């Protein structure tokens, strides 16, 4: 422990050995330190010079043939902390000085480099573009999605139902599950019971959880996959799709998702059945029979 700590302080292996040995004596010499540590005397001379420059020992040097009589006195070990406190003050002062011109350095470094990618797709076709792209991309990597349960307004009822069935089939080929968190409200209950009535595999193809809090509102589907975000807005007058490649933004939203996931409750067959039958599905079945 002490050897590793002194190494982190900035001492080499030989410096550590010589320093620890010097602490055991009121006064010592290169000859005595060499004998005690097994380090060649010529090397010990260089080591004690370094320790002296680092402020850990004091030297009283002799010249010429009396060099071996150089006297070495270790300083009180509390000097280690004093040195660190001095470095901390120096580093704080240096940090403040660097902050003064750091923006200029960053301006030169970044210039007009593209470090994120934003692709905006307006209108219904734009929303469809991002939706279809996410169906294929979600097969390859884990996906974490905040989902409002997509309205049928974009694709129409028949096309939306067809897309959902295609997605269920694609999920069987996926390497990773899609985790989705949604608010629990009348709309999400409607979508879940409707799609479950069409195909009970719907709630098994995704790992879905819900938050039963009115404060939790989602107006877009936000999917995080690796460094990519795919956002689809299909509510009211805001119809668009957006693809963003940003490592830091993806990390931020993924961390928020994972915290939300932990407090959310699983969507299970029992839960969906407890909401009762879906009126739209019953009407569809009635019309098919008539």
From TrEMBL:
Residues 6-77 form the Transcription regulator TrmB N-terminal domain. Gene3D superfamilies: Winged helix-like DNA-binding domain superfamily/Winged helix DNA-binding domain (1.10.10.10). InterPro entries: TrmB-like (IPR051797), Tscrpt_reg_TrmB_N (IPR002831), WH-like_DNA-bd_sf (IPR036388), WH_DNA-bd_sf (IPR036390). This is Transcriptional regulator, TrmB.
């Amino acid at each position: 422990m002490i050897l590793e700590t002194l190494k982190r302080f900035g001492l080499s292996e030989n410096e550590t050995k010589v320093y620890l040995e010097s602490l055991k004596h009121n006064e010592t010499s290169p000859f005595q330190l060499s004998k005690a540590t097994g380090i060649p005397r010529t090397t010990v001379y260089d080591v004690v010079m370094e320790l002296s420059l680092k402020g850990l020992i004091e030297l009283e040097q002799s010249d010429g043939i009396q060099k071996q009589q150089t006297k070495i006195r270790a300083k009180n070990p509390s000097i280690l902390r004093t040195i660190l406190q001095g470095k901390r003050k120096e580093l704080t002062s240096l940090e403040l000085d660097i902050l003064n011109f750091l923006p200029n350095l960053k301006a030169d470094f970044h210039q007009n480099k593209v470090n994120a990618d934003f692709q905006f797709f307006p209108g219904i076709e734009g929303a469809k573009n991002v939706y279809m792209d996410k169906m294929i991309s979600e097969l390859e990597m884990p996906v974490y999605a905040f989902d409002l349960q997509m309205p049928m307004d974009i694709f129409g009822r028949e096309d939306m139902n067809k897309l959902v069935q295609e997605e269920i089939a694609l999920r069987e080929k996926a390497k990773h599950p899609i985790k989705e968190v949604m608010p629990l409200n009348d709309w999400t209950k409607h979508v879940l019971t409707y799609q479950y009535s069409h195909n009970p595999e719907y709630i098994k193809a995704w790992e879905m959880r819900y938050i039963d809090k009115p404060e939790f509102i989602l107006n877009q589907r936000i999917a995080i996959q690796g460094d990519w975000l795919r956002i689809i807005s299909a509510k009211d007058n805001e119809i668009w799709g957006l693809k963003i490649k940003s490592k830091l933004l993806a990390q931020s939203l993924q961390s928020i998702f994972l915290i939300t996931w932990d407090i959310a409750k699983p969507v299970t067959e029992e839960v969906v059945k407890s909401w009762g039958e879906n009126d739209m599905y019953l009407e569809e079945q009635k019309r098919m029979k008539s």
